[in-house]
Specification:
heterodimer, A: 330 residues, alpha/beta, Rossmann fold, 10 helices, B: 337 residues, alpha+beta, DNA Primase, Chain A, DNA primase DNAg catalytic core, N-terminal domain, 3 domains, 13 helices
Chain lengths: 330, 337
């Protein structure tokens, strides 16, 4: 065993720490999440895993894809840097449709139902070009393939290796959507919790091997959520499924109070002047190594455009986009 | 069985063999034509059967090494047989007269070589004649007096400056296959030495809407269109696509050191393999939507980039008002296959 790989002398420690601080000061490898409410609290760093907890249909996938789009604009595509979104949930077409809706501002439901109007076709094609030039690759499945490959983490590692070796790309960030859908048959564990632990370890290993920032989405159990009136997922709610808390270097959770309509009504006051609206999405920083935690931030989320805005601006933006659509049609 | 090549040819029925091979022969004057059944081409007039000295002969104008010949040659190619086996296939029995057989085969080989040389000379002569006549200059001169020609080129995304750069032109009345007349727009195609190789006529009112191009005269072979001929099969980025028009539109948004190659029909992709192999890392193949198969074979052979777009590249460039930096980003994000 190579002992000097894991024993460090005080001067080594001192030098390594100073170098690390120096790197962080001017670090081009840190990526901003691109969400104004969160940028000052959380940055995506290489080799680190950030967890994103949320109940079903609370905007987990949308937030992760928004973060992926935002980070894609910061990386050096000219020199082959890319981001990778690994999806077990949506197929590639459905995922890309969210991007196209975001770029074109044509409502997602219109795209999904093929109801794009003649005057919107140019916008659609411009959005298609924008998507085609966004350095965000997908590992997953296509609706045209007629089957879901149900990827294991071993498959994902092979795909990443292919992207790095054959395509000559450097992976700057990865998103995994989401933990509970990952095929566990390669984990060699019988116990479900141990299987998820192995999967989280695989994500961490990917981060260490290829040096991207990694985001992993995880669902929380509905039983847990519905026991509470305040349904912002907490990190220990993920404990039963894996070593999520221990593996993640940082963790966020998402919650849309308007969807908890058995507990909250529109117009209810939450805290710090935040009111329950149709668009409100709360993000909490649950864990962050060497950083602030238990910080709650409010955003507005327009699911139909796959769009995130500062709190309080959602409704006005929706009205503006609808007005523009009507004007363009005329 | 004694061997007599005339007896074999007399028994052979070339028209039936072609149809058996999948050729859907259509009579056109004193010739028959169809898509080539030997290389499974899709140009409906690329394969021709005609009579010479009372004997049926065939020729494929576009295929990779299909060539031409008589019924025996056709069976050789169709059934992948040697000369002796092809004669036996036609006669339905074994031929043991090996000496005559060998002599005949050698004689036919000599004749085929002579015919190849003669065909090349004829092609060269046709090109020479075309150069002398400077027909492409006449076609180009038409742009000055026919506003519709200029306007059509412009509406296709090629402005007046670029029309003059490529010496594009038009023809008021082009006679297609001796069947019907249509106006055309013309594209002169040069080789890497700047020599005129052919003139492509883009049919304005074709009988079949899928039927788009014809050469200026019969027998002129199809050649890839290079937007900057003297740059050769090279460039900072080398874009390969189907059709000269797409190559031209793409080049109007390109960097000056990029080359765009318009391939005249999918069959021609494979002829580019050796030319592009040394520069494969800079090559990107852009197929038409739903016509990817042969383009993909080229890209796989070169291990180069492959770009799928939701619509044809020229339509996409024009509709989205694409700029050079976006084209460059498309190159960057496309995958190697």
């Amino acid at each position: 065993m190579d002992i000097d790989k894991f024993v460090f002398s005080p001067p080594q420690i001192s030098t390594a720490v100073t170098n690390s601080i120096e790197d962080a000061r001017t670090d081009p490898t840190m990526l901003s999440l691109g969400l104004p409410a969160l940028n000052e609290f959380v940055m995506a760093r290489k080799d680190k895993v950030i967890g994103l907890l949320g109940d079903t249909s609370q905007g987990k996938t949308s937030l992760m894809s928004e973060i992926a789009r935002n980070m894609s604009t910061q990386i050096d595509a000219e020199h082959g840097e890319i981001g990778i979104y690994v999806t077990w949930e949506d197929n590639m077409e459905d995922f890309g449709m969210g991007d196209i809706a975001n770029f074109s501002k044509i409502p997602l439901v219109s795209l999904y139902n093929g109801q794009v109007k003649e005057h919107e076709f140019k916008k659609l094609m411009q959005a298609a070009t924008e998507r085609a030039t966004t350095p965000l690759w997908i590992i997953g499945h296509s609706e045209t393939s007629g089957m879901r490959p149900q990827l294991t983490m071993t498959d994902v590692c092979e795909a990443v290796e292919w992207i790095v070796a054959k395509q000559g790309r450097k992976v700057r960030f990865m998103c995994g959507d989401y933990l509970q859908r990952i095929n566990r048959r390669d984990t060699n564990e019988r116990d479900t919790r141990m299987q998820f632990s192995a999967i989280m370890d695989a994500w961490k290993n990917l981060a260490l091997a290829y040096h991207p920032s990694v985001f992993v989405g995880s669902q929380v159990s509905r039983d847990k959520v519905e026991k509470h009136k305040w349904r912002q997922p907490q990190i220990h709610w993920a404990m039963e499924t894996s070593n999520f808390e221990h593996t993640c270097d940082a963790a966020l959770s998402v919650w849309m109070p308007s969807k908890s309509n058995d507990a909250w009504k529109m117009g209810d006051q939450l805290q710090d002047g935040i009111t329950v609206t149709k668009e409100l999405l709360l993000v909490e920083i649950l864990k962050q190594k060497k950083g602030a935690t238990q910080i709650l931030k409010a955003l507005d989320f327009l699911p139909e455009y796959s769009m995130f805005l500062p709190y309080g601006r959602g409704e006005a933006m929706r009205e503006r986009l609808q007005r523009e659509a009507v004007n363009n049609a005329i | 069985m004694r061997f007599d090549v005339n007896a074999v040819l007399q028994k052979a029925d070339l028209l039936a063999y072609v149809e058996r091979a999948g050729g859907n022969l259509k009579k056109n004057g004193d010739r028959y034509s169809c898509a080539c059944p030997l290389h499974f081409g899709d140009n409906p007039t690329a394969f021709s059967v005609y009579q010479k000295d009372g004997r049926y002969l065939w020729n494929c104008f576009t295929g990779p090494g299909c060539g031409g010949g008589d019924a025996i040659t056709f069976i050789q190619k169709f059934q992948n047989l040697n000369f002796k086996q092809a004669c036996e296939w036609i006669m339905g029995g074994q031929i043991e007269d090996s000496e005559t057989m060998l002599r005949t085969a050698q004689e036919r080989l000599r004749q085929a070589e002579l015919e190849t040389i003669a065909a090349a000379q004829r092609e060269d002569a046709r090109r020479q004649q075309m150069r002398v006549e400077e027909r492409h200059n006449l076609y180009h001169a038409n742009l000055a007096s026919r506003q519709w020609m200029r306007e059509t080129w412009t509406s296709w995304g090629i402005d007046e400056g670029m029309q003059d750069f490529w010496n594009l032109g038009g023809c008021d009345d082009f006679f297609v296959d001796g069947e019907y007349h249509t106006p055309t727009l013309t594209i002169p195609v040069e080789n890497t030495d700047g020599e005129l190789m052919t003139i492509q006529h883009r049919l304005i009112n074709p009988k079949n809407p899928k039927d788009k191009y014809r050469p200026d005269r019969k027998g002129l072979h199809a050649h890839p269109f290079l937007t900057v001929p003297r740059m050769g099969y090279d460039g900072g980025i080398i874009w390969v696509m189907e059709g000269a028009k797409k190559a031209m539109v793409t080049w109007t948004r390109s960097d000056v050191d990029w080359q765009c190659i318009g391939v005249p029909g999918q069959e021609m992709y494979k002829h580019l393999i050796e030319k592009l192999r040394p520069v494969a890392s800079r090559v990107i193949v852009v197929p038409d939507p739903k016509a990817e198969t042969k383009a993909l074979l080229l890209a796989k052979e070169l291990n180069c980039r492959f770009l799928e777009l939701p619509q044809k590249i020229d339509d996409h460039i024009l509709m989205t008002e694409m700029k050079q930096d976006q084209l460059y980003k498309l190159f960057q994000q496309s995958r190697k296959v």
